[in-house]
Every structure is written in structure tokens, then in C-alpha cells.
């Protein structure tokens, strides 16, 4: 475990003539630690008013979250704090200028933040959810994600008619950044069709009928012609990535896409620069997805509710892990789904397969992404992975803070490094010593803005 260098003491400039002082509201009570104090140093009103783009321009009147932004400082300096560099904590604080990290001290500093005894990490991510999907539940979801330090989210199956209107209020400095897959490609009647029909029965999607789901919540296709028609439909709704389903493909009980149709879909998506995430029910489905050229496996088997088919379906062979690694196919863990399983003996079997699969994939060099496929925030998945005791704290922290870059591969995120987006979390204790420190977030900065949570925000359930 890397040792933590001693903290530098805050310099006197942090308390020179503050004209503005803001208390960061604590989501998690940070007993025994110093509060993080934010000072806006007076440089004269002309300097203070010379802000970057007015945040009011970014926070529209339809802004759903009550999370608020601090005055947007042009430059931020930090004192103290141990900064995570991907392998351990170092003692070289960065600066923030125009929403980016920089290494050199800017000519003038608008704000200095004292981080003594804090551990600074990149924001966390949730690589598999369906939670941010419609207006009614958006505000609570955004607040929960921000409370848990989860800034980057992938919704791997949603209804574009409900989710696309949210785009105006997502992907901003005080909300979460969300990639939407829209309806996944499956077979007629295949998953997720019955699931969505149950949701319609429960009134989850306002006054929608089941007939409205096809072409929105899923795309049922069996051949090339149907695929091309469905693909044009989803393309018009501008997905950020494509979702496809394989359910025991190449068995007599298969549902979802055939391997041939999946391969064709991947080719079409690649032409448009869209990545394809595949729901794989079995280890063999993972292999088929990799052969088809998919970019991501949306679940690591097993799904706990189908474990009765036996370990032979779910244990990932080394040859499959090697293929995934060679073709750079990432795998979303979704292990916490086993928590919903109440049979103790079966749950232990599932956990034992999960441990073995995680080791096989990691040892082969497969990129694992932290994602829960639940209405948690991804923190539940990270803590469940910690409980499986397969990875040491450093490995797990690295996996989680790397996950956001897989969701948004074109952005400079997930690193506390120069030229990267200035987003960070300050923890009150060292997550390499105690992984549960990832829950003890004292300060959140997103793209150079300090996020202030509304009072009584609840984090993960
Ligand atoms: Zn899912």
C-alpha cells in the first residue's frame, strides 16, 4: 500500500481578506475532520466579476436539481490534501483554471480551498443503470448521484420519448453526465419487452400503452431487413451508444439477437461511431459478443435469478477472457444484483462464481467497469465488489475512477492531471486504508464548479 506523504500546512493566503465565504454542506457527517472551507480571495471587484461564461446561461429554468453551484471562480488553488494519481496518493496539488486542471500556479488566484487531511480522488461512475429515464424521478436521482460523487452515468436501456427531453438539463456542471442507449435490440418477445410491459401495467410511464413500447423501449428484429429499419428509427433518436441482447444464443432456448444479426448491428453502429453494449446472459454469450466486435458486455454472468442452469453456463473460460482482452471489450460488473437474491446457499454459489469470473477477467487484462444495474448509484456496486474481496483497495479505486472514461471516451476525465476536466471529490479519510472512505465525501467539484447539495440529500439507499 503506498504511503501517504505528510500534509503541507495551509498557507496564510487562505485567510487573507476573504470577501466571501461559503460552507460546503456535508452529505456524510465527517466526524473528527476539518471542514472544508472555501474562500474567495479579494482581488478587487473587477477581477471577481471577470468570470468565465455566466453559469446562469448553463442552468436553465427547467433545471431539475436543487443542487446549486458556487460562484464560479476563474482560478482555484488548493492547500494540503493528498491527491490520487491512479496508483497512490501524492502531495502535488493542482490548480484549476477555466474548468481544467493545470500544474503551474496561475498569475492570480480567485479561490483557495484548504484540503488538509483530505484525500482527493477523481469522480466515480455508474456504468449500468436505467435510473435517469424520465422527468418525474430525475431530481432525486441527480441529487443521489451527486451525493455519492457519481458524476458519469450510462443508461443502458431507456425510452427516448421520456429520456431525450432530459438532455437539456443533464451534462452540466451541477448535474450528472448521462449516456443514453435508448431501446435495445432483441428478438420479438425477448428481454426487455416483458419487463417494460410490466412497468406499463404499473403506470411507470404515464399513460403509455404496451403498443407504444416497440421502437422506443426495445427494437425486436429477426433479420437484416428488420434490423436496418429499426436502426434508422433509433438513429433518429440520437442514442449515445447501442444496446443489444444475447440470451443463451446458440442454444435451443435462445432469445435476443442471433449472432449474425448482432454482428451486422455492430458494423452499422461502428460506421456511425457508436459503441455497442451487449447484455450477455452466459459466458458463451460474452464470447459471441466479442467475436461480433461489440465494445462492452453489460453484465458479468451470472444473473442470480438463472443460476439453476449451473456453473457451466456462467464460469468464464480463459479463452473467452483472452478474446475480450485482445479485442478490448470491457465488462460491466453488476455483481450487486446478487444481493436481491434471498436464498443464502444459492447466493453463496453466485458469489463464488462472481469471484472466480472477476479474477479470470482481471488476470487476462479485461477492463472492468463498475456498474450496478440497480436504482443505487454505483456506490452499492463498488461496496459489494469490495465485500467480495477479490481486489485490493487500490485496484478497486482505480477501476471505479476509470469507469467514467469508458462511458465518455472522448473526454479528458477520470484523472487528476493537467489538461483534464477539473472534477474531483475530497474524502475525509484514505480509501486505500479503508475502502468505505469512498462514502465520506466532503467536497465535490465538477468542471471547476463547487457543487453544493441541497440539505438532507440522501445518498445511496
Ligand atoms: Zn440493465
The low-confidence parts are 1-67
User: How much strand?
Assistant: 15-25%
Label the structural class: alpha/beta
CATH topology-level fold name of the largest domain: TIM Barrel
Shape: globular
Measured between the Cα atoms of the first and last residue, the distance is 31 Å
Q: What's the number of helices?
A: 13
Largest sheet: 7 strands, mixed
Say which CATH homologous superfamily of the largest domain is assigned.
Answer: Metal-dependent hydrolases
CATH architecture of the largest domain: Alpha-Beta Barrel
Structure, explained:
The protein is an alpha/beta fold and 461 residues long. It folds into 2 domains: 12-121 and 415-452, Roll (Urease, subunit C, domain 1), CATH 2.30.40; 124-407, Alpha-Beta Barrel (TIM Barrel). Helix content is 27%, strand content 20%. The chain has a 7-stranded mixed beta sheet with strand order 3-24-23-22-10-5-6, with no helix packed on it. Helix 8 links the parallel strand 18 (276-280) and strand 19 (296-297). Helix 6 (224-236) runs parallel beside helix 7 and helix 8 (283-291) runs parallel beside helix 10 (318-326). The longest helix is centred in the C-terminal third of the chain and has 21 residues, at 344-364. It is globular, with a radius of gyration of 23 Å. The protein binds zinc ion. Residues 128, 130, 156-157, 373 line the site of zinc ion.
Amino acid at each position: 500500500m503506498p504511503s501517504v506523504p505528510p500534509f503541507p500546512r495551509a498557507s496564510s493566503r487562505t485567510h487573507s481578506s476573504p470577501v466571501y465565504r461559503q460552507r460546503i454542506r456535508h452529505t456524510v457527517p465527517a466526524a473528527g475532520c476539518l471542514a472544508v472551507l472555501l474562500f474567495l480571495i479579494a482581488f478587487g471587484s473587477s477581477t471577481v466579476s471577470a468570470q468565465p461564461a455566466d453559469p446562469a446561461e448553463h442552468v436553465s429554468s427547467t433545471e431539475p436539481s436543487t443542487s446549486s453551484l458556487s460562484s464560479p471562480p476563474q482560478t482555484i488553488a488548493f492547500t494540503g490534501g493528498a491527491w490520487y494519481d491512479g496508483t497512490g496518493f501524492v502531495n502535488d496539488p493542482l490548480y484549476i483554471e477555466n474548468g481544467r486542471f493545470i500544474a503551474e500556479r496561475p498569475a492570480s488566484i480567485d479561490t483557495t480551498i484548504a484540503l488538509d487531511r483530505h484525500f482527493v480522488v477523481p469522480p466515480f461512475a455508474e456504468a449500468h443503470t436505467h435510473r435517469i429515464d424520465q422527468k418525474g424521478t430525475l431530481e432525486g436521482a441527480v441529487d443521489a448521484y451527486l451525493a455519492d460523487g457519481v458524476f458519469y452515468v450510462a443508461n443502458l436501456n431507456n425510452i427516448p420519448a421520456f429520456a431525450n427531453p432530459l438532455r437539456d438539463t443533464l451534462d452540466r456542471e451541477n448535474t450528472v453526465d448521462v449516456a443514453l442507449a435508448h431501446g435495445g435490440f432483441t428478438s420479438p418477445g425477448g428481454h426487455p419487452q416483458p419487463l417494460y410491459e410490466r412497468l406499463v401495467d404499473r403506470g411507470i410511464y404515464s399513460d403509455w400503452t404496451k403498443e407504444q413500447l416497440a421502437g422506443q423501449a426495445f427494437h425486436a428484429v429477426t433479420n437484416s431487413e428488420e434490423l436496418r429499419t429499426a436502426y434508422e428509427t433509433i438513429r433518429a433518436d440520437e442514442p449515445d451508444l447501442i444496446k443489444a441482447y444475447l440470451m443463451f444464443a446458440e442454444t435451443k432456448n435462445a432469445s435476443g439477437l442471433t449472432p449474425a444479426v448482432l454482428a451486422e448491428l455492430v458494423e452499422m453502429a461502428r460506421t456511425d461511431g457508436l459503441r455497442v453494449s451487449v447484455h450477455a446472459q452466459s459466458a458463451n454469450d460474452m464470447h459471441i459478443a466479442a467475436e461480433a466486435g461489440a465494445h462492452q458486455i453489460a453484465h458479468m454472468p451470472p444473473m442470480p435469478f438463472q443460476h439453476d442452469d449451473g456453473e457451466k453456463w456462467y464460469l468464464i473460460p480463459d479463452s473467452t477472457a483472452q478474446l475480450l482482452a485482445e479485442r478490448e471489450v470491457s465488462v460491466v460488473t453488476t455483481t450487486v444484483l446478487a444481493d436481491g437474491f434471498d436464498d443464502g446457499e444459492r447466493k453463496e454459489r453466485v458469489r463464488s462464481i462472481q469471484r472466480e469470473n472477476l479474477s479470470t477477467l482481471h488476470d487476462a487484462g479485461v477492463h472492468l467497469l463498475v456498474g450496478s444495474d440497480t436504482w443505487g448509484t454505483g456506490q452499492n456496486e463498488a461496496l459489494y465488489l469490495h465485500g467480495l474481496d477479490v481486489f485490493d483497495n487500490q485496484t478497486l479505486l482505480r477501476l471505479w475512477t476509470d469507469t467514467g472514461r469508458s462511458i465518455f471516451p472522448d473526454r479528458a476525465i477520470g484523472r487528476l492531471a493537467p489538461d483534464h476536466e477539473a472534477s474531483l471529490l475530497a474524502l475525509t479519510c484514505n480509501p486505500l486504508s479503508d475502502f468505505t472512505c469512498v462514502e465520506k465525501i466532503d467536497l465535490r467539484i465538477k468542471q471547476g464548479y463547487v457543487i453544493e447539495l441541497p440539505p438532507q440529500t440522501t445518498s445511496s439507499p
